[in-house]
């Protein structure tokens, strides 16, 4: 009997946890997963990097069930109240509508390359202004807070991912309105259970005080994916975080070729270092000035520090990162803590040292090439004239249960919608697996063989990544993550 017949395909233990088991995130590491598109609410504060993150987001809008686009404030930007609070670095609220108008020009082309792009009208219907008058302001009931409240309380099942690109004050106001309405009523316990089960916050930095002062004390059961450091590798300080070997896709020649030149009016709005394009209301942010920031070339990447909030949910690439924050993917990798998960370290393959930025930076070339392809889609009306992702698969499946000491052979396969030539690679994502040590891999073409180590303990996991890369321009990838659970 072939050795492969002894493999038992089973869901990894962490994936099998139901969402109801997640009320105590410090004790349970999984996140239940649905094949449906992830449902999201974006909250942002109008910083330059929010604008760039929003441009990329529009090119990937087909990958989400978008439930809201809400303007909040932060400690970096607020509108003022026309009386005793003056505006600070305020960029206005009109730019979101303007970017959606520019998306409308791309929309007919984008639809030729992938299904599911929302209409411009639908996107506009989701755009609401929240609590913007001051940093941490959550006393006012706003259109944005009421919208988030409605989405949280609706009958659509979770998870609902609320992304904090800026402050969490509008989200906090929505939760406070729910608390004010239901606290002390007979419905309150069930409302709390529903929200704890449903809502997941992806927090970028701590951009106001409402998470610490209101949300965590009053809603301790809400799970929080907390990105406090990994985002810097895709933000203003990227030259300090991204290894030199990975920086080429963030440098001016790549940016100009793939995004800034000849890719339509939306990407003409994309901000880069020293580009000579000031941001109305935020002129004191001088990164646009050609005579400043001379360590960067004109048109070097500037920042998309908020993009990891939605790239975490990119399941189309096969990395399965949304199944469990500890798995890692284009939106970073996280370790459990008392309120959910906090960003953690991977071993930097260039230095051999633990590096808190590396869970993000290891993917930077792949995610930039992927975005470059979508930038092409926006200005290419015929499918055959652009590049599209290949498809990877593994014959034996992606969740296997294998006894310690047993051999395993996995057969990867690839196909390409454009007929491109394909290259294959297998590698172990050692940091993501709970076995935690390197395993010898014998790779033959698109197949890999290994022996599950004899010292592996029952329940430990080994994560293998199968990559398929096409030879198109830009070169695109698709992955399959195989999780071997020791039994």
UniProtKB/TrEMBL annotation:
Leader sequence residues: 1-23
Keyword Signal: yes
Domain spans labelled Cellulose-binding Sde182 nucleoside hydrolase-like: 39-334
Domain Cellulose-binding Sde182 C-terminal: 408-486
Keywords from the UniProt entry: Signal
Keyword match Transit peptide: no
Protein name per its UniProtKB record: DUF1593 domain-containing protein
Organism taxonomic ancestry: Bacteria, Bacillati, Actinomycetota, Actinomycetes, Micromonosporales
């Amino acid at each position: 009997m072939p050795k492969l017949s002894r493999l038992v395909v089973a869901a990894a233990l962490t994936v099998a946890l139901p969402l109801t088991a997640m009320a105590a995130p410090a004790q349970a590491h999984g996140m239940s997963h649905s094949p449906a598109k992830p449902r999201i609410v974006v909250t942002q504060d109008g910083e330059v990097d929010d604008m760039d993150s929003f441009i990329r987001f529009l090119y990937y809008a087909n990958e989400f069930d978008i439930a809201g686009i809400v303007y909040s404030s932060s400690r970096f930007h607020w509108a003022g109240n026309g009386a005793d609070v003056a505006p600070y670095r305020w960029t206005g609220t009109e730019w979101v509508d303007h970017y959606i108008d520019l998306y409308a020009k791309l929309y007919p082309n984008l639809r030729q390359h992938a299904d599911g792009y929302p209409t411009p009208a639908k996107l506009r219907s989701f755009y609401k202004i929240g609590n913007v008058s001051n940093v941490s302001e959550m006393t006012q009931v706003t259109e944005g807070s009421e919208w988030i409240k409605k989405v949280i309380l609706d009958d659509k099942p979770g998870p609902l991912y609320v992304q904090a690109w800026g402050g969490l004050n509008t989200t906090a106001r929505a939760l406070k309105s729910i608390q004010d309405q239901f606290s002390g009523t007979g419905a309150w316990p069930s409302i709390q259970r529903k929200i704890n089960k449903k809502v997941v916050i992806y927090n970028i930095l701590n951009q106001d005080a409402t998470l610490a002062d209101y949300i965590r004390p009053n809603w301790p059961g809400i799970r929080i994916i907390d990105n406090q450091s990994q985002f810097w590798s895709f933000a203003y300080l990227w030259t300090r975080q991204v290894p030199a070997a990975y920086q080429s896709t963030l440098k001016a020649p790549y940016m100009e070729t793939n995004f800034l030149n000849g890719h339509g009016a939306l990407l003409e709005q994309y901000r880069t270092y020293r580009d000579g394009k000031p941001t109305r209301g935020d002129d004191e942010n001088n990164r646009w000035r050609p005579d400043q920031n001379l360590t960067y070339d004109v048109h070097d990447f500037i920042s998309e520090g908020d993009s990891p909030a939605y790239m975490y949910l990119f399941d189309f690439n096969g990395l399965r990162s949304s199944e469990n924050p500890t798995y890692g993917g284009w939106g970073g990798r996280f370790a459990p803590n008392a309120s959910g998960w906090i960003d953690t370290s991977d071993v930097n393959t260039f230095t051999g040292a633990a590096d808190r930025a590396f869970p993000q930076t290891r993917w930077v070339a792949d995610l930039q090439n992927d975005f470059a392809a979508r930038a092409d889609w926006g200005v290419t009306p015929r499918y055959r004239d652009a590049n599209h992702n290949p498809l990877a698969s593994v014959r034996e499946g992606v969740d296997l249960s294998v006894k310690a000491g047993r051999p395993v052979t996995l057969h990867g396969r690839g196909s390409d919608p454009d007929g491109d030539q394909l290259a294959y690679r297998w590698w172990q994502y050692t940091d993501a697996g709970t076995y935690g040590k390197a395993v010898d891999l014998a790779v033959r073409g698109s197949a890999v063989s290994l022996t599950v180590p004899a010292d592996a303990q029952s329940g430990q996991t080994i994560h293998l990544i199968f990559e398929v890369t096409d030879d198109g321009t830009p070169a695109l990838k698709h992955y399959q993550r195989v999780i071997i659970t020791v039994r």
